[in-house]
Each structure stands twice: as structure tokens, then as C-alpha cells.
Amino acid sequence: MTQSTLTSAQTPGTPQGSAPAASATAPAASRSPWSGHPEAEETRRWTEIAETVAAQLAEDVLTRDAAGGDPFDSVRLLKDSGLTRLLAPAEYGGHGGHWSTAFRVVRILARTDASLAQVLAYHYNNEESIVFSGDPEVRETWYRRSTAGAWVWGDAVNPVDPDLTLTDTGAGLVLSGTKRFCTGSGVGDALLVLARISGGPRDGRLHHVVLEHDRAGVEHHDDWDLLGQRQSSSGSVTFHDVTVSPEDELGGVDDPFSTLVTPAIQLSFVNLYVGIAEGALARGREITNARKNAWFRSEADLYRHDPFVLRLYGELTSQTAAAAALADQVAQEFEEVIGQGDAVTPDARGELAVRIAQAKVVSDAAGLAAAHQVYEATGSSSTRAGVGLDLFWRNIRTHSLHDPVDYKKHEVGDRFLNGTLPPVSLYT
Question: How far is 119 from 300, CA to CA, in rounded Å?
């Protein structure tokens, strides 16, 4: 078994069958602090906050993107706005928001600054591992520490880079090795680490530990220099024989509810891509409406009246609207499943993963098409670096390679034709 795959043997104690109704009994649902759907006031409030933060990020997004590095000042905006505490339960100092609200926030930020949207998306999933992987008795301790400090949670989880060793020495755990692509690690107050335990009674178990940014033996590398998502703070991290105390341990990923962390991050990606598409189209509209004249063979007076330009925007905006609608619908389905807590079945989890895979396929295509084809309406002058239209294409092109979309299509097709649910893994 590789680090990126969890077998069915690791999801014990849950019967096969269709998902239970949302009205699961209180004991079964108690593991999940999230239930129901957001009221209109919650949606309105956090939409306004996210739009305000996005407007602030827009002021220097191109300058920051060109500089790269870790976005400490921008992350401060996320903290001060309350966005980092959105999903944490109110009784532990958070805002008690819903996942569909968090997905909406990620989409809004991605319209302007997909790097910061990625940092926030990963933060939500990393912090909520308190619930996914942590025992209920440690939940309050972790949440209170996180909300009191307005923590941002980075990670060192990358499943295809399993070069970490979590050794049980008999006297405790010792962490060593290097992980690449550790989103939010450079700016994170907390670092969620996933490694397989070697030795001792828990030998072979995937296990989460949480370390503070400046823990002795933790070395952050400023080596994130990719085409896009340049301020996602996704450099490598090396652990030099770091002593892990019992207080640093969070828990494993070993039942259907805990494995919902992967559908959650994949649905975050869906909204990241939709937001990038919406941002590219909004910027493209500004450029196109400002263009003078029209192509010399056109019968239109302006480019924005040209039938081919109208056709292009009609197609791209329709694709993006369809992706957004599907993302919203699947977010509601996610709320229904995650609210079931320990009552979540492997089948319910699998069906949700397929629905999110469908949304991933559609949003990936819509994002890439919008960020690429919008140039056909904006013209060669829009390729200047100062225009900023390239930011959307570089960001979607970079992040859409996170995991191959062809395998999402395969999962959807296999379910449709053969009734097969995708395997439980850290990518599905």
C-alpha cells in the first residue's frame, strides 16, 4: 500500500449501502461540528468580507506576483478579516461557518489573487483536520489555540512525495526527511504533517502531527519558483530529526468521515478554477470594451460589437456559469454528507467523490478555456506584462496540473458504466 492509497480495510465498522438521511441521530452526527446549510445572512456577510479583501489584494497583485516569495502582509489581511476563523466552531472562538461559504470565499479571492485563495483553501482543509483526524477530546484544545492566534495552517502532506520518516523510537516519535510542494508552509503558523509511522505498535499507520512554524529542526526552503501561483508559499520543508511530543499528534485517516478531507480539498480546487475563470473574463471584458475600432474585415464598428467576439464571450461565460452552478450544487451535497459525522458510509463518501470529480472536470476545462481563449478577443496588446491578463492563465495552468484531470474523467466514466466507486486515496 502506497502512502497515497487507503484500502477498504482501513474503513472498518461502517456498513455498505446508500447514504443515510441527513436527519442522522445526534450521537452519530456529533463528530461533525457542521450541519445544515448557511442562512442568507452568513452568505451575505462573508461574501462582502471576501470581496473587500479581494479588492485590497488587487491593488498590488501583479507586483507581488512578479516578486514571488512568501505573502506575509497579504496573509495578515486574511487573518484580520476573520476569514481564517470562518470554519472553526463558534464555541471554540471561531465563526461557525459552513463549508459552502468557505468554498464561495475561495472562489471570490481567486477572481483576483489565486495564490492567496490557494493558501486560504489549504488552510481550511488543514485546520479542519482537527475534526477529520483528531480525537473529539483534543478538538477544543486545538481549535482554541488556532482561533486565539488567528493561525494559518500550512502543510507538508504531498502524497506523491513520501520522503518523510516518523520513527517510533520507543521513547517517542522522531520526524525526518523532506517534503516538496508544501502549500502555506512559509507563512503558516501551524504546519500539518502527514507521514507513515515506522516501528512500534502503530507501525505502518498514516499519522498527522502539527508543528509550529519555527520548531527546532524544521527548515523552510524558499524554492517555489513556478510559472503560476507564485505567492502560494508552496516551498519545500526539511525536518531534521524533529522530536514529536504526544501533544503534537493529531491522528490518522482511517474511516469514511476522516477521508472526507480529500473531497473537501478537491472541491476547493473546483472553486479556485471557477474563480480564476470569472476573473479572467472580467478582466477580458474591461480590455475588450476599451478597444477602439474593429478588425478591418469586420462590419462592426467596435470589437465589442463584432459577432465573433460576442460568440466567444457567449461561449466562455456560459461554460463558466455552468461550472459555477455545478460547484454550488455539489457544495450543498458536501454539506449533507459531512453533517452525518460517523454515520457517513463508504458508498456515500464514494458518490460524493464522483460528483466532485465531475465538477473538477468541468471547472478545469472552463478555467483553462477562459484564461486562454480570452486573448482571442483582447488582442496582442493584452499580452503585455503590465496588463495582467497572463496572471489568470499562468495560475490555472500551474494548479490544474496538481493531479491529472484524465483520472477524474476515468473515475466518472467508471462509475457511469461499471458502477465502480473510486478508491479512497489522498487524491480521490
Answer: 44
C-alpha grid cell for residue 315? 461561449
Q: Does residue 269 share a domain with residue 225? A: no
C-alpha distance from residue 155 to each of 70, 81, 192, 220, 265 (Å): 14, 22, 4, 12, 13
| CB burial of residue 343 (10 Å; 0-12, 13-18, 19+) | buried
**Cβ(165)–Cβ(175) under 8 Å?**
yes
Structural domain containing residue 270: 258-418
Q: For residues 38-60, give the mean pLDDT.
A: 98
CATH number of residue 99's parent domain = 1.10.540.10
Q: Looking at the structure, tell me whether residues 385 and 308 fall in a common domain.
A: yes
Helices 99-110/40-58 angle, 10° precision = 20
Tell me the per-residue pLDDT of 63-84, one tens digit each, with 9 for 90 and over: 999 999 999 999 999 999 999 9
Cell of 149: 492566534
How far apart (Å, rounded) are the C-alpha atoms in residues 63 and 191? 27
How much is the mean pLDDT over the chain?
92
Any idea which residue has 478582466 for its cell?
283
3-class secondary structure, 217: coil
> Does 102 score more than 50 pLDDT?
yes
Integer Cα distance of 117 and 114 in angstroms: 5
The grid cell for 5 is: 492509497
Residue 29 has pLDDT above 70, yes or no: no
Q: In sequence order, what E strands does 31-126 have?
A: none
Average of per-residue pLDDT across 342-370 = 97
Cα 275–chain centre separation: 12
Structural domains in the chain (count): 3
Q: How many helices and strands in the chain, by DSSP H and E?
A: 14, 8
Q: Which cell numbers in the block locate residue 354?
A: 464522483
User: How many Å is the maximal CA-CA distance in the chain?
Assistant: 80
Residue 110 lies in a domain: yes
**In terms of C-beta density within 10 A (0-12 exposed, 13-18 middle, 19 or more buried), how is residue 212 classed?**
middle
